[in-house]
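Subgroup meeting minutes
Present: P.N., E.W., G.H.
Scribe: E.W.

1. P.N. recapped why we're keeping a running log of single-chain structure predictions: easier to compare across weeks, and new members can see raw inputs and outputs side by side.
2. G.H. added today's entry (190 aa).
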Amino acid sequence: PIPNEEAENNAEDNFLWPNGREEVAKHACHVIVTIAGSGEYSPIEAVVAIVRLALVALELYDGLGVYWGHGSVCNNRETFEGFCEEVSEEHIPLPAVMRFQFLSAEDDEVALYTLGMNQFGLMEIEVDHSDMELSELFEYVCHVAHYLVTTGAVIKDGDTIGSDENERIVVRHQPSMIDKSRKVYKILFE
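Output recorded in log:
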């Protein structure tokens, strides 16, 4: 098994695997899939290659799930396979390789933070509070993450984002809600 309950801890509170901690605790062994080399692959190429290898390992060893260390996330097999069905450099399965963690915020609102943007050389994304439905907020942040992953660190402090030219949501580079020593892309739904 993966030592120190690392897989269990990264399955815990994953909204995509509600009983993940308990189910992962039953695993008896693991297979490590990685790429070794010095810069032969871009971060996107590396993620795509490792996802493809992980899919093969799941099939060969009848795997329970995938723990993605760089994203601090552990997903069950069905979820991982579902997000990775059409994996390519254009279709990067971010929910399979990153953690999207929801938290309660004030006044029945919700907060969200990501873990795993650093594997693409980017700051994490956070929303301190939103009245969006969980699925809507998850999808919105996924789109922003995908945009950043595929275009690079193009969102500057104070830039606005939106689905069209009329929607102007400010993004700030601010200290993280979970680690004040790090700066993140803070999406401000004001």
